[in-house]
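Objective 1.3, modelling of assemblies. Example input:
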Amino acid sequence: MEKRYMAIWFRHLLTDWLALRRPELKEQPFVIAAPERNRMTITATSPLAEAEGIHTGMAVADAKACSAGLQVIDEVAGKAAKLLRQLGLYCIRYSPIVAVDLPDGLLLDISGCAHLWGGEREYLKEIVNKLRASGYDARAAIADTAGAAWAVSRFGKTTPIIPPGKHADALLALPPAALQLDSANLQKLQKLGFHQCRMLMEMPRPVLRRRFGEAFMLKMEQALGIQLEVIMPLLVPVPYQERLPCLEPVKTAKAIEIAIENLLQILCGRLKADGKGVRKAVLKCYRIDGKMVKAAISTNRASYSVSHLQKLFGLQIDKIEPALGIELFIMEVPRAEEVDQVQESLWAANPGLQDTSLAELLDRLAGKVGPAAIKRYLPVEHHWPERSIKLAESLTDKPATAWRTDRPRPLRLLPRPEPVEVMAVLPDYPPKVFTYKGKRHVVDKADGPERIEREWWRDEGEHRDYYAVEDTLGQRYWLFRLGHYDAAPRWFIHGYFA
Amino acid sequence: MQATKTDIISKLRKDILQWEGYKPPAPGTQGLMGLGEVEAAFPNGVFPVGTVHEMVCGNTGQAAACGGFVTGLLSVLMQHGGACLWAGLSGNLFPPALKAFGVEPEKVIFVHLAQDKDVLWVMEEALKCEGLSAVVGEVREIDFKQSRRLQLAVEQSRVTGFVLRNQSRKLSSTACAARWQIKPLPSEPHDGLPGLGYPRWQVDLLKVRNGQPGSWVMEWADGRFVAAEKPVLEQQVLMMG
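Predicted structure (tokens):
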């Protein structure tokens, strides 16, 4: 389908908004000003002030000289973006793809929308009338490209609707400023005598590129439809979404459960038909007091199994507060992935990490105790014991290196080494006796030392000399001495062997 | 006459076992765990898989020994590529050491929790999952009711569970199939070399359902359990009660 875009221009966005908030301002000229280079500069003007010859970019002092009763109001930073966002959200009723076009406009991708209002003329009239009725002085234009619609909405003199395929012709008579160029290039064009886009389009491309740069060419080609212009929608539409309005507001756990089941059945049917599965799902409950509560689940493997997903949501039901009642349920799947059915049947009989029931179990556990509590470790090529393992990111991660078994490692490693008091017979000998937590252990046998150097590119400090020792009772420990043997060597216990 | 009496008694014993749900083992299943004489203490002489075992650990040293022993058992249970879930309060298990006991550390999923209640919930859920080969839970206290819930969970799925009781204050009775206590023993240096030998434990079977409690000395040598000495008989008598 061919693309159609609509550009909306709010000529007096900020002043219109102020006039709505303070009706007394409607009767007198006023401007909005912000400090710039140590003087107050006008950033927005009201229609009355404009009629007196005041324009943006003027110093406030000059403007006051033109108009005696001029009221000056300080600018609030970021107000325009906030206003445009609100207006954009309002315009979502006309098209699902609405983008904010700073500083004073909106862009709508209206492909396939206009016929619902009986054609583009009625569609445009409806939007502009609605916006004007709510107090905003809006101008709009429709064209094949976003750039052309922008140009016509700001500079067009004849018709706001450019028929399909005619956008290049519409641009011909417009000034170069209609191409959304930066001020440096505009001044250059003016100096060179380019008053219309027609003159620019007749020039050979390489000449323009050399003189005005790549960004200039991009803007021009986007307006002409040679290059695609991508607009960032305010709300990204979720492909898998289902709604369940309730006749009566519900507030019991059972009712929520039924709602979840109904929504999941529709969603999973759609997902299954597409060969996809849920990785993340969100249930939004709209309450009659105007608030919205959410419950979210995530899975380790894409799944379209109603019973499994229902179990996951079942663990969340007690966290949903219905208050006075829920009148609308919306279930969204922000993350869906392909389900490989061949793999599923292959692995069904093979217990292991790829097992479906294990993935479902972990989803349930994560729903109750939180995903951070569930860990799986992989080896890393580091000798330093604390760094020799890392967390696996998913169930399918495989170790990149082999687990090392050539050196003894304790089964229980203390979270951080704890100091012990030690008596050694000779320097560089394993300890003969050590005291840990007030208990004296006489060492009977010892292995070592195994020297592990600190990774100097990561942290500073001394190396460790590890000894595996066994006391007279048969308990085996992992001790180390920090640094070289000197007057007061420091010893630590770091783990217990089996 | 004497011979017939013992025959009758052994036949009756077998019958009672069968009535209690212990099927005679399929040929070739005996001695699969590699525990040697210890397995003879269990009914029909087979280490019971698909049940919950209880391990009593008095202190951190015993907990380490116990962890080693359980990991040795896991290596047999997981030998066909199965996965294991290890839930606990301490979270001080060092995965690289599992490899020395024949378990692939990346096949073990750790769940670190703060409360006994949560560990038992996770254990129960995991024991119902047929995709796992074994489940290990480290708790402080477990009462009879909780242990029975675990036992009921495994009866469907035939997953083997191990409850490690770390520093519990009192040993309440449980519904577990066996109660073990593993204590570290001084190792024997092999080939007369100085230094530490293979890890050696005193394996006490304090309680066994329909079996003979006993005490043995075992070593973990070259990737399998090896009986190191004759069982300590006087201890066995003491633990019978």
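Helices of chain B lie at 2-19, 60-77, 95-98, 116-127, 144-157, 233-239.
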